[in-house]
Design brief:
- The protein has 39 residues and is an all-beta fold.
- Helices cover 0% and strands 15% of the residues.
- The protein has no helices and two strands.
- The protein has a two-stranded antiparallel sheet with strand order 1-2.
- The protein is elongated, with a radius of gyration of 12 Å.
Amino acid sequence: MLTIHADDHALMRDMRRADPKRPPEMQDKRMVVILPGAL
């Protein structure tokens, strides 16, 4: 599964709240990459 950082995506950046128990370097939001024409 291919994923990318989701903070720059208009919709996906708001889908998950940060976990206050984790340090900032572990707050990375990921989203699946959809490849056009992959079918």
